[in-house]
Amino acid sequence: MMRMRQHGSLGWSRRALVIVASLLLFGGRAAVAQGAPAARPRNVIFILSDDHRYDAMGFVPGAPDWLETPNLDRMAKQGAWLKNAFVTTSLCSPSRASILTGQYAHRHGVVDNNIDVPPGTRYFPEFLQKAGYRTAFFGKWHMGRSSSEPRPGFDRWVSFQGQGVYHDPVLNVDGHEVKEKGYITKILTDYALDWLKKEQTTEPDRPFFLYLSHKAVHAMFEPAPRDSGRYSHEPVPYPKTMPIDAPGRDTWPEWVRQQRSSWHGVDYMYYGDLDFDTFYRRYAETVLGIDRSVGRVLDYLKQTGLDRNTLVIYMGDNGFQFGEHGLIDKRTAFEASMRVPMLAWAPGMIRPGTVIDDNVLNIDIMPTVLQLAGAHAPRGYVEDGRSFLPLLRGEKVADWRDEFLYEYYWEWNFPQTPTQYALRTARYKYVYDYGVWDRDMLFDLQKDPDEAVNLIGDPAYRDLAARLRARLFAKIRETGGMHIPLREPKGGQQGNRRPPGAPSTDPLLRNGAGR
Length: 515
Fold this sequence. Notes:
13 helices, alpha/beta, 515 residues, disordered N terminus
C-alpha cells in the first residue's frame, strides 16, 4: 500500500499541469464561475446498492406514498436524477464487473455469479491511482465468490466473501480478517467515513475515489433493527401484470408463464417460504438503511467543505421485480429488472433539480469518472460505455445513444430464465430468447409501459420486429459478442416447480383475485 501511495503522490506532482488543463477542458469554466475550487480534479464517491428498484425512491412518480428516502430525494433535488438508467446485465457479478471495466459482460467475461474473474482484467481505479488519486473500496465485491482478498486498484480495502451477511459480519480489512458487531450498512459507512477523515488529515491536497458498495438491499432482506416493522401495516402495491389472468398474458413466452410457479415466481417464491406482502415491506424497510448511509456521506461532505469539489454518484447494480409478469428477482430483460436508480450530486457543477432523460448505462460509470479525473485507460483498452459528464453539466449531446444492448446468460443455478439478448430503443424493446423453443418478445414502451402485450405475433409489427432483430445482432457482432459462454455447474440449483395442489404464496391468489 505504501508503494501505491508514493506512486500516487509522485503521479500527482507530475500531472498537476495536465490535470489543471483537463479541468479547464472538462468544465473548469463552470467551476470557476461558481466559486468551486479548481486547484485539483474533483473527488468522486460512488455508492452502489444491491437490487434497488428504479422506482423505490420517495420522489419518483409511482412510488408508494409511504416510502421514505429523504436523502436520496435530497440528491435528486440538489443534483441530477438520471431517470433512464439501466444495466446491461441484471445480475450482481456481471453488472459490477461492467461498472469497473466499462465493458459488456460478453467482453469482460464475468457472465454469472460463480465464474472467476478472467486473468488480466483491469479495473478503472487502477487508472485513477496512476493519475494521483487515493482509492478505497468498502463493501460487497462479489466477483470470484470464494475470496474476499484485496483487489488491484485500491489503497484501502474493506470487503467480505460473496453475498455477506446483514448482521455481525466478518470483514477482510486490507488482507486481515476482522469480526465486527452490528448492522452491515452502518458498519461499511463507518469505515468509509473513517477513511475519509484520516486521509483528509494526512493528505488533504490529493483527490480521492471512494467506492461504497452495499450489501443491501439484497434478499433475504433484513432491515436495521431500528427500521424493522416500520412499514408493517402499509398497503402493498401489486403491478398490473401480476394477476394470473393479467390482460395480454397469452402473448407472453411460455417460460415466463411457467416461471410463476418457480423459485422466482409469485406463486412459489423461494419454494413457498415467503409471503409476498412481508417480502415487499421488508425490502422497503431495508432501503431505509441505504438512505441513511447516503445522508451521512452527504452531511460529512457538507460539514467539511468537501461538497464543493466532490461528485457523488448513487446507483443500484440491478433492478428488482416485485410481481411484474408474475415474477420476483431480476435477470430478465423486463423494465423492472434492467432499470436502476441513478443520482448524481456535485454542488457547483450540476444544476439543482436536473432531470436527464437520455439512456445512461452501468458501462458509462468508468469513462465518466476517468474523464472527470483527467485519467485515461491504457492504449488499446476497449470501452463499450461513454462518459455522461456532459449530460451532468447540462450540455446537449447530439450523438448520444438512442438504443442499447442488454444480455443475460442462462445459469445452471436458476434455470428458469433462458439466455436473453435485447435491444431497447426509446420506444421499442425487442427480446431474443436463445436456446428455448418459445416466442421472442416485442413491446411498444410508449403505448404499453407495463410490457403487458407482446407484439411479436402481431402481423402489423412483423417488419419492425425483423428490423430490430437485425439491429440487435449487428450490435452484438460489433462488440464481439457472437458466442454463448459455457460454464461448469457450480453451487446449488433452484429449479423445482410448485407441485400440483401445493398452496400458493401469491397474495392475489390467496385473496381470490386474479382468477
